[in-house]
Amino acid sequence: MRLSRCDTGVMIVVATTVGELAGVLGRLRDVGVRSLEVVEPGAARRVVVAALDDEAGAAGLAAMLRAEGLAAVTKPQGGAALERWVSDTRPVCFGGRLTVCPAWSEHDRRDWPGLIELGFGGFGNGRHPTTRQMIEVLLERITGGERVLDVGCGSGILGLCALRLDAARVVAVDVADEAVQAARRNAAINSVDSQLEATLAPLAEVEGRFDAVVANIARAGVAALAEELVSHTAPGGWLAVGGISPSQCSQAAGFLSPLVEVERRTEGEWSTLVLS
Predict the structure, then answer these.
(1) To the nearest whole number, what is the mean pLDDT of the chain?
(2) 161 near 152, Cβ under 8 Å?
(3) CA–CA distances in Å: residue 238 to residues 13, 52, 99
(4) pTM for the full model?
(5) Using one digit for the tens of pLDDT, what is the confidence trace for 216-239?
């Protein structure tokens, strides 16, 4: 990745598209930003790096742009913080089939497989062990055409991965409005908003059964929603629950009877169970 020439100042970074670039540049100029650089990390993606005079001004402008629906964040000025930024915005590849990165990443991603770009908000960027485990389950089990339920969807990353693996449709639910809004934005960013429905509706009100149910919601969430998780899993389908510790696996599996454990993944202090 080539660092932008604006890296010596206080910066904000705005992710946009080729078609929306002129409008974003115009908006930044309207608010007094004069030092702008455009990075082209992908065929359709454009990233605008803007330098400002003070850190508070950069944070305030980024927040204002996000309120207007733009994917805007502040960028560290230099040193260790900038090194972490460069590392944390690097695309993450899973199984040679899926790639996840922030929409504002300046890393080139033209040749990465199954690209998923994420905007601001909602838990899940592919780097936490619980998210990685769930994505690995999707890689092994989604074969195409499935109807998927994502419980506690956060950023919507698991539903987006399922769609990139050729699932037919995703219903994503969360109790936090911020997460639902983030999942909707991310579906639009990845041009799958017609296939992903994100909703605040209680799980008990979601209609139908699903070929795959994913729920990265920790032990307490599994315990509270066990009956609904089981009832929404179609005959012949499967349920994956994550965010639990290895010591909680047997108890979590017991909550989800009559489904039975068919797979367990553990990385350090985190485990994921698959039941069918």
Answers:
(1) 93
(2) no
(3) 40, 50, 24
(4) 0.92
(5) 999 999 999 999 999 999 999 999
CATH code assigned at 158: 3.40.50.150
Q: Cβ atoms within 10 A of the Cβ of 249, count?
A: 18
Q: Which of 64, 97, 120 is the last residue of a domain?
A: 120
Are residues 137 and 247 located together in one domain of the fold?
yes
Q: How far apart are CA 202 and CA 207, in angstroms?
A: 11
The rounded percent of the chain whose pLDDT value lies above 70 is 97
DSSP run (H or E) holding 71: strand 71-75
pLDDT at 142: 98
Q: Above 50 in pLDDT, residue 2? A: no
- Give the span between the Cα atoms of 160 and 124, in whole angstroms: 11
On the question of pLDDT at 4 being above 70, the answer is no
| Tens digit of each residue's pLDDT (9 = 90 or more) over 12-21 | 999 999 999 9
Q: Are residues 145 and 252 in the same domain?
A: yes
One-letter-per-residue 3-state SS of 133-163: HHHHHHHHHCCCCCEEEEECCCCCHHHHHHH
Which structural domain, as residue segments, surrounds residue 24? 1-120
Length of the chain: 276
Task: State whether 82 and 137 are in the same domain.
Answer: no
Peptide bond into 258 cis (omega under 30): yes
